[in-house]
Amino acid sequence: AQSVTQLDSQVPVFEEAPVELRCNYSSSVSVYLFWYVQYPNQGLQLLLKYLSGSTLVKGINGFEAEFNKSQTSFHLRKPSVHISDTAEYFCAVSDSRNFNKFYFGSGTKLNVKP
Amino acid sequence: DTAVSQTPKYLVTQMGNDKSIKCEQNLGHDTMYWYKQDSKKFLKIMFSYNNKELIINETVPNRFSPKSPDKAHLNLHINSLELGDSAVYFCASSPLAGGFGEQFFGPGTRLTVL
């Protein structure tokens, strides 16, 4: 069965510092990977996605993620965060057996401090 | 010009009542979803419809019944509400019946059962 693990429930970081949010998945087949952001009291918004091709994926707001098949990871990074990046971040995966079904991680709360 | 809209935004009701949440998307997508986000922010898929046909039906109590009158609408009806139904419910849509397309989320409906 599919599963997605976000090891860090909260990540505090100072403004302009780099950040990495970790995501690991388990699957026996090809996967499609996504990162979503949820600002307070809002729905989820797609940051970036990996479907195939280059393992380094660039998204909106300066975020990027790298697909590492051997480590079954899809960590999200940003070289310099802003206060406005404070939000909940969700990793999600679907696979070739059932494209429609997205499995979400439990989320990581990024708290950017001035 | 909202892409995925849900009504109501907030819903407070007593145990045992029946309530509905409506969802509409104006993106021309074929696939729509309902998710439940619990108090710990864990997001889990409940149902998915592709062009008015049910394609995903997770282990959800049969008090929950989705209805899709056309491919732009997916409503969620809940009978005999229980305290544990309190959560934020998100509607989403995607352009393709598969994981290739990102999912566009509505703003959520916060259901509180007293």
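qc> The longest strand of chain A covers residues 87-95.
qc> done
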